Predict the 3D structure of the following.
Amino acid sequence: MNIITQAIAGHLGDVELAATTISITVISGFNYGLLLGMASALETLCGQAYGAKKYHILGIYLQRSWIILFLCCFLLLPFYIFATPILKFIGQTDEVAEMPGVLSIWLIPVHFCFAFHLPMNRFLLSQLKAQVVAWMSLVGLVVNLLASWLLVYVLDFGVVGAVVALDISWWVLFLGNYGYTVCGGCPWTWTGFSMEAFSELWGFFKLSASSGVMLCLENWYYRILLLMTGYLENVTLVIDALSVCMNINGWEMTIPLAFLAAAGVRVANELGAGNGKAAKFAIKVSVLQSTMIGICFCLVILVAIDKIALVFTVNADVLKEVDKLTYLLAISVLLNSVQPVLSGVAVGSGWQATIA
């Protein structure tokens, strides 16, 4: 959904692509990395509890995660409200800083959606309900396409319309998963809201914080890379070219991230059931499969980067800059096919603080 939004922005103009990339990838992405990491604590807790057949506690864990992430959203809110002053303070030009500040305000609904969607996603995956998550994601994607078409091309709201469509689709995705859960999809693990969710919040927060630091440090180097381009000449051109490469990398990255989730859940389930040998076997299988897929995509990028980049822009100068980065992009895709899987193993094993 993020890629669709940035692709639409790229066809609206070069400045729109740069602004949307900074607001989604840097401002929203900075906070998403922290919230995603904090939500991953549920992969450890829910995964191991599910493996140990302690089903009743999963719903309590989910509610605790909602409480902690919702409160953290308020602490992170200034990054959205003061995006333009922050970008200028760290040395970005007015051209780079102004429009992302406007778009960041419109991304606040997505920011709060993350606090509920990410824990819900981990809650369902830890119960091996990946098909449910996948179908709901398809619904969200279709809604995103329709809303983007309506708001951008019919109602002519421009790049703001694309961002609003993103808001709508993320909330549809969460509400679909939530509806499935409370309407009987998880009868063993969801028994309704409970005051028990407000107990032991400090211990839950410490594990969530460790998880958040571990994954956000991995996530933030992409954001820092984009910010560094703001100090180069022809800043809009450079940001556009790098955003195309990062979007292609992010597109392919969804596969290793899927292996991250699968490895985390499987390892946690097996450890919860006291089966260390099966957990080790799951690690070997996931690393091997993800690496093989990474090799295939590496070759695709080397052969067809010029065709793939047309999804985001038709600007000849941007396409020329993207072509210069082909080999670095291919290497990044290959290396990133392994590293997220190992992060999933760490999450499933409860090693977040050590890895952080």
Notes: The two ends are 29 Å apart (CA to CA).
